[in-house]
Amino acid sequence: MSVAEARLQLHWAVQVLARFGDAHVDARPDFSHSALTWDPAARRFNTEADAAGRRLQFDPVDLTFRLERAGAEAAEFALRGRTLTDALGWLAAIPDNIGRLEIGGPDVPAHPVSRGAAFDPDPDDAAELATWFHSAHEALTGLRGVWPSASPVRCWPHHFDVAILIPLDTPEVQPDPEKARSVGAGMTPGDATYPEPYWYVTPWPYPARPDLPALPAGAVWHTEGWLGAVLHGADAMLAGPEGIAEYLAAAAEICAGMAGR
């Protein structure tokens, strides 16, 4: 399993959606207006709709952007073989007052596509990543059923992970969001910590002296730089959907008991 090259290219592609959210969706303090959602039926990323009913979408397999517009035919742009500049120019040229979006400075690993190279990820690797995102949406939606207070399932474009946040304190109990206890759970398609996809569940705040309980089979504790229960991609594939659900449920319970201890 080696999808790092496709992951880096797709990470840059979704920055177009994030900047659309920044520019056109009403801002929120947690920056969720720039986050994405996964459409499980169409298997593509979506922005939220703006006040005019417009929504920008991206299919990570066929590399197509799609702008949905209320009362008008959707506009599409095929990214394969084209550049970020081309994509931004297409969006700006649509007679719908989108404007010219700027991609500068996102927290995204450097890659030639950010400097003008054309997008051309391996189609099989792109399809594998789409499967990871789809599985993450399904599994985290299931975990939300166990924790009704959890946030919506979102893809955060700065890290390119799909995640939910489970608050453990109400604002009345702890008004400072930096100190409020919570559990984060999600899937990243790879990052500086591990280059291949993996699942994570983390407690917040980190316990002062963590006692690391046993985890479900295949999961391990990550302790360098951050603390969390990790299920690596190869182990997740062996576990299957039921095993991933068991890992998420058990790790969330464990991390909830550790948060801020």
Structure overview:
The longest helix has 26 residues, at 233-258. 31% of the residues lie in helices and 21% in strands. With 261 residues, it is an alpha+beta fold. The chain has 5 helices and 11 strands. Strand 3 and strand 4 (64-69) form a beta hairpin. It has 2 domains: 4-122; 124-258, no CATH class. It is globular. The mean pLDDT is 93. It has a 6-stranded antiparallel sheet. Strands 1-2-3-4-5 form a 5-stranded antiparallel sheet, with helices on one face.
Q: Spans with pLDDT under 50 lasting ≥5 residues?
A: none
Question: How large is the share of residues in beta strands?
Answer: 15-25%
Terminal Cα separation, in Å? Answer: 37 Å
The count of β-strands is 11
The number of helices is 5
Reading side by side through the largest sheet, how are the strands ordered?
6-7-8-9-11-10
Structural class: alpha+beta
Mean pLDDT comes to 93
Q: Outline, from the CA principal axes? A: globular
**Roughly what percent helix?**
25-40%
Give the ordered list of helices and strands.
HHEEEEEHHEEEEEEH
Task: Note the main attributes of this structure.
5 helices; globular; six-stranded antiparallel beta sheet; 2 domains; 11 strands; alpha+beta; 261 residues; five-stranded antiparallel beta sheet
Which helices and strands, and how do they pair?
Layout lengths: L3 H10 L1 H10 L12 E3 L4 E3 L8 E5 L4 E6 L2 E7 L5 H10 L29 H24 L7 E3 L4 E7 L14 E7 L9 E7 L15 E3 L5 E5 H26 L3
Antiparallel strand pairs: 1-2, 2-3, 3-4, 4-5, 6-7, 7-8, 8-9, 9-11, 10-11
Summarize the model shown.
This protein is an alpha+beta fold and 261 residues long. The protein contains 5 helices and 11 strands.
